[in-house]
Specification:
By secondary structure, the chain is of the alpha/beta class. The chain has 26 helices and 21 strands.
Length: 656
Amino acid sequence: MPDNSINPYLYAGNQKIQLLFLIPSLSTGGAEIQLINLIKGLDRSRFCVHVVTLYSSLGCSKMLRELDIEYLELEKRHALDFRFILPLHFWIRRHRIDIIHGINVSARFFAWILGRMNRCKVVVSERNSQPVYSSAGSRLYHAIEHFTNRKADWIVANSLAGKRFAESLGVPSKLTSMIPNGIDLDRLKSNGLARQFKQEIGLNINSSVVGMIARLFPQKDHQTFLKAAEIVASKRNNCYFILVGDGPERDDLEQLTRRLSLDDRVIFAGNQSRIGDWLQIIDVVVLTSKQSEGCPNSIIEAMSMAKPVILTHVDGNREWITDRHNGILIPPQHPEILAQELTHLLDSPEKQQMLARNAKEYAQQKFSLSAMISSYENGYTKLLIMDSKRGAEVNQEQTLPQRRVHMFGVPVDACDLEGCVDWINSQIRQNTTRHIVLVNAAKLVKAQWDEELAAIIRKADLVGADGVPVVWVSKIFGNPLPGRLNGTDLMYRIFELSVQKGYRLYLLGARTQVIQKAVDRLRQMYPGIQIAGYRCGYFNDEQEIDSAILEIAESETDVLLVGMSSPMKEKFVRQYIDRFHVKVIHGVGGSFDILGGLTRRAPVWMQNYGLEWFYRLCQEPKRLWKRYLVLNSLFIGMTLKEGFKRVASRGNRIAH
């Protein structure tokens, strides 16, 4: 994405953005599943969506009609069939398409051609970290795309490895973004009757099940899976293996199954739309990719359903797994190692539970469908903000969000997570220090009697809404904020940004053992991250504070993360802000405890319903009861009082 601080809320055009997705086909696959998820979630008041496939996709036209999406099949015959280009050019012109988003090989090339012919913005998706060839035609298109992708307006990868791959081909870093896949929870719904479902497909209810959910393509290397299955089956009489997916390798894999005498142990389930029914009966999910991946749907869906996963240590895969913590990494094309890990895991229910628990927690934090959709919506909007033909004039050096909502005497910026990350990225290039303050209900209450805290919030460079109740109240009062800007989510996005850009981080806060565990885990989760330094946040005297500030100032830190309680961290930062000599300061509160694995975040559904405070209260009732029960009650009272004032004021205006 163009590297600037443009705020998506500047776009004020009344006309909907005409968005065209161009993809080879809509057959079952990771890219296709994520496209459908994106289409379903896009804001139809802002986007008019069109879908064009190069080849026929059976059954998809009905699905897209149900979504009120205009759908066109070009029925391309072969790799060198270009007859459709001119008719599609006139179709695009007739529909006044603003953005063409090309997904998967060949569609990306044609998106660029048609975009240039029609002066549209061109977006391309990079879903791998190296070329994956499926035919001579794909080799040709990959070679061409090495040039055309560099000319696109925005390249979106679903992994850091994919982003680095795009940049290695000469794509400017400022034109690339990483947006992880989002999990569609509806797709994971199951009948909840695992025992009954096992019986329906002919399995013993007490059997162990190992599954792999992937297209039957050479890249996925199902042969390694089957060879490992042979070894495990020889040791465990009651273990079965399921392959969910279809593809050109099916006949060869079925023949291999027979040669390995696994006919009665392996089930070829084919393509399945309700993947949750199958995941509910699988004990361990495996992915044996031998080349590379991006953000594999089968793995993140399995993690979301609390299933332990084993996958190969290739680009893309290893990005999401901390070995032995939320999954197991193995070398590719080593069936004996896979068999060994499977045997150990199936024999250890405790280890399965530990991996499953950590996997689910990670998936809930990392693979939010709403976050994915929001990131794309903001990205598309920014492209048109920068497009002079739409008449938008933007100051690309702006340093502050464009809209501020005033709540109970303090400002809150209309800025979501991705907008904040873009803003941080732009500010690191400036030779000044920026301070981010996030406010929740408790902090807004404290600001009513703590004038120093209120003044700090007003002076902050960016103020975000770190609480669902704050967002709710903004909507009630008619000045809606775009959503919650959670401090922990922002911390993890800063980690990702730092890996992408090579920014240096300093972690200050928590006790010594906590910060040490947090840093150790951070280095595991984000290999190559540059940590300029870290130290605990407890000081015995002013001399220790001076020593810490001097260390930070000399460390050439880009982003300082402060893990202290509120309002201590706000006052500490404001007192010493001129001495830190860093670019951006973000107060993360107790997030170092979460990073270090000492405390757990609330389930995503509790976060979405504004109940994270209740989850934390149950974890630490003695420490947090006053903060949440008393201050939240006061916040409700403040809201009611303000509401009555507004009603009375409106009544007075009507009377006059």
